[in-house]
Specification:
Layout lengths: L3 E4 L5 H12 L3 E6 L2 H10 L6 E5 L5 H9 L3 H4 L3 E4 L15 H29 L2 E5 L12 H20 L6 E7 L6 H5 L4 H8 L7 H13 L8 E4 L16
Parallel strand pairs: 1-2, 1-4, 2-3, 4-5, 5-6, 6-7
Helix pairs in contact: 1-9, 3-5, 5-6
The chain binds NADPH dihydro-nicotinamide-adenine-dinucleotide phosphate and 2-hydroxyethylsulfonic acid.
Length: 251
């Protein structure tokens, strides 16, 4: 019997690569996202309805999430692995210039959406002695100019992951926070409002992480023996490291 994973935000980037990798490793997957045509194309690519099942909904909408999960066919309902991957950054300007609506969208997606799906699946995950893998970020731990609310949402994801582990003590459920740095995906187009030149500048010569690197990490975490919990993993490309603190000087 194949194990079942649900991967949120499977229509691009990390989520798509994670779904591809899990299916290659024998898992069957539930794929979520808002772009139906991409979900349907990925289901076909992954081997059709025996291997993958699409759930098209906006993760910010609790009722849509509830309805989608209820509609899961029996063969995909016993979920062993939840990959909380759907998320986004919007903008990278200083807080004083930011758009409040963009801040709310990040909070609603990266925090509210993530905790909603997690809560709705917790009973199943406990029954299955399953695994939760949350996509946080290096921004969870390391501040940078323009990170403001995005970084705050990812700090929440990291801390929520640790808290979940505490609450699930004795239940056999594992929880991991994955915290990637510079990674090449549509994330940067979303963050910059579709600015291809900004995308090209960011990644040029940097050999950023690729979605397949994150998929490899998720696969590794999920393939460890049931008594091993990876609490958190921070991953950067070799090209990325820390800069000095900034010091503002008068005059
Ligand atoms: P992408 O933009 O490539 O993918 C984001 C995914 O999230 C898409 O599948 C998108 O699906 C889904 N999503 C976004 N908003 C919603 C929503 N309201 N409802 C449902 N699904 C939604 O980005 P990445 O793959 O790079 O990012 C994946 C995760 O990894 C994010 O949480 C991101 O914060 C995190 N991360 C990314 C890094 C990077 O540098 N790329 C580094 C560290 C962490 P759709 O639009 O179809 O709804
Ligand atoms: C995405 C990585 O450094 O842009 O989470 O915040 S970073």
């Amino acid at each position: 019997m194949s194990k079942i994973a649900i991967v949120t935000g499977a229509t691009s980037g990390f989520g798509k690569a994670i779904a591809q990798r899990l299916v290659a490793e024998g898992w069957n997957v539930v794929l979520t996202g808002r772009r139906k045509e991409r979900l349907d194309a990925l289901v076909a690519e992954l081997g059709g309805p025996d291997r993958a099942f699409p759930l098209c909904f906006d993760i910010r909408d609790e009722q849509a999430a509830r309805s989608a999960l209820v509609e899961l066919p029996e063969r995909f309902a016993a979920i062993d692995l939840l990959v909380n991957n759907a998320g986004l950054a919007l903008g990278n300007g200083p807080a004083q210039d930011c758009d409040l609506a963009q801040w709310r969208t990040m909070i609603d997606t990266n925090i509210t959406g993530l905790v909603t799906i997690t809560r709705l699946l917790l009973e199943t995950l406990i029954a299955r002695r399953g695994l939760v893998v949350n996509l946080a970020s290096i921004a969870s731990s390391w501040p940078y100019p323009g990170g403001n609310v995005y970084a705050g949402t990812k700090a929440f994801v990291r801390q929520f992951s640790l808290g979940l582990r505490s609450d699930l003590s004795g239940k056999g459920v594992r929880v991991t926070s994955i915290e990637p740095g510079l990674s090449e995906s549509e994330f940067t187009l979303v963050r910059t409002g579709g600015d291809q030149a900004a995308y090209d500048r960011l990644y040029a010569g940097a050999h950023p992480l690729q979605p397949e690197d994150i998929a490899e990490t998720v696969h590794w975490v999920a393939s460890l023996p049931a008594h091993v919990n990876i609490n958190s993993i921070e991953i950067m490309p070799v090209s990325q490291s820390w800069a000095p603190f900034q010091i503002y000087r008068e005059g």
